[in-house]
Q: What sequence folds into this?
């Protein structure tokens, strides 16, 4: 099943801090994430999702984790357990963190 699109609302949550207030917006990974054409990744990978299974993890998160794995020369053993609700630096600066 294709992943559902995350809708970034401009409404602020009283008990959450915006990610853009926590991270360094001048960091190279943040700049790279903002320049990527994420829609093209979605279009290229959508054929690999089937309709009869559980919802997929967002393509943006998967691509970001693979890039970080490549960048750090890490094996699968060292990759974090991914919660699809958590975001990475690539995931934009409008996301929230609890």
A:
């Amino acid at each position: 099943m294709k992943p559902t699109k995350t809708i970034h609302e401009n409404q602020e949550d009283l008990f959450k801090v915006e990610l853009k207030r926590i991270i360094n917006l001048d960091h190279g990974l943040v700049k790279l994430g903002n320049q990527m054409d994420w829609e093209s990744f979605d279009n290229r990978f959508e054929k690999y999702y089937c309709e009869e299974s559980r919802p997929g993890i967002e393509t943006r998160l998967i691509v970001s984790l693979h890039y970080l794995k490549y960048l750090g020369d890490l094996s699968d053993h060292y990759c974090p357990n991914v919660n699809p609700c958590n975001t990475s630096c690539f995931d934009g600066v409008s996301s929230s963190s609890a």
About this structure: The chain has one domain: 17-97. The longest helix spans residues 59-71.
